[in-house]
Write a structure and sequence with these properties.
- Helices cover 48% and strands 12% of the residues.
- The chain is of the alpha/beta class.
- The chain has 2 domains: 233 residues, P-loop containing nucleotide triphosphate hydrolases (Rossmann fold, 3-Layer(aba) Sandwich); 133 residues.
- The strands form 4 sheets. A 5-stranded parallel β-sheet has the order 4-7-10-3-11. A two-stranded antiparallel ribbon has the order 1-2.
- Strand 1 and strand 2 form a beta hairpin.
- The termini are far apart.
Amino acid sequence: MAKKKAAKATEKSNGDGGMLRQPAEVAYQAELDALLKADKHDKPPGWRMSPRAVLTYICGGKVGSTTITPKYIGHQRLVEIAISTLITDRALLLIGEPGTAKSWLSEHLTAAINGDSTQVVQGTAGTTEEQIRYTWNYAMLIAHGPSHEALVKSPVFRCMETGSIARFEEITRCASEVQDAAISILSEKRISVPELGVEVPAQKGFSVIATANTRDRGVNDMSAALKRRFNIIVLPTPKAIETEIDIVKKRVADLASNLELKAQLPTDDAVEQVVTIFRELRTGQTLDGKSKLKSPSGVLSTAEAISLLAGSMALAGNFGDGKVGPDDVAAGLLGAVVKDEEKDHVVWSEYLKNVMKKRGSAWRPLFKACEEHS
C-alpha cells in the first residue's frame, strides 16, 4: 500500500509542469519528504507520519535544514484537536465563515497523513448518493451484468478500501437524503453492495474530513444524527488584523509563484488597506469602533482579499508597469464589494465618502481610483 502511494506521488510530481493548481502533496513535497525522513515518533495505523509531524507540517517549524512553512495561521490547539480526532473512529467536521481556511486545512491534513489529498466529494445541490457510495459503468453492466469490474467507486469507497482519509467539501450544500447516505458509512464503517452480495469494511486509518460554511447553514442543515457522527471544530476568522495581513501576504505570494504572475508583489501598504476595507465592511464598523457602517451583501472574506490582490497583480503585470497601483486594486474592490445589487452601490459610496475620504494622504490615491471606478 505504501509503495502504491509513493508511486502515485512520484507520478504526480513528474507530471506537474502544466498543472494549474498543484495538490498540497506536490506543492510541498520537499517539506513532506523532510518530515518523513526525520519522523521518529509512532504512527497510527494507515498514517505515513506521526501526529507530531503532521502538526509541524500544518503549523510550521524547522526540520534539520528545512524550514516548514505554516499552512494554517491560527490557534494551534484547534489543529491538535483536529489531528487527534482523526486518530479515533470519529469523523471531523470543520465549520466557519467563508475564507477561514476550512478546505485549505482539510487538504493539508490529508496530504500529510496519507500523501493524497485528491479523494474529494464536492457537495453541491446536484450531488447524488452515488457520488458518496458507488455507481456503475452502465455499458459493462448491460453487457455482462453486475461485476467488480463494472463497479465505479466513489472517493469515500476507495478511501475505505485503502484505510485513508476522504474529504467532503461543503456538506450542507447537499440535499438531506444525500447527507443521510453518509450516516451508515460513518456509523458502520462499511459499504454494502447488494448487487454483488458483498460488504466492504473500512480499513484502519479510514476517516472523513467534511467542511461546512456557516453562511449556508440554512440551505440543507445537517440532521442531529449526522452531526453526532462528527467531532465539530469551528474555525474562527482572524481576530487580529496583523494575523489576517500575514495570511493574505503568504497566500498571495504562493499564488503569484504558482501562476507565474508577471508583477511585483503588492506593497505592505496595499495589503493593509485591502484587509482594512474588508474587515470594516465585514464587521459593520471602523477598526477604531467609532463609526458604524453598512455591510454589503457579499462575503468579504480573507480568501476574497487574496483573490483580489492576485487579480490586481495580473492587471499590473499584463496591462501596467508591473507594479500594483491604486487603479489595479480599485478595479478589484468594486467587483468584490458590489455584487450587482443597488444596496451594495449605496454601501460602497457611503464608505468612500464617510471613511476613506477622511483617512489622509496615505489613502488619497486609492480613494481617487475607487471614486473613478465607481
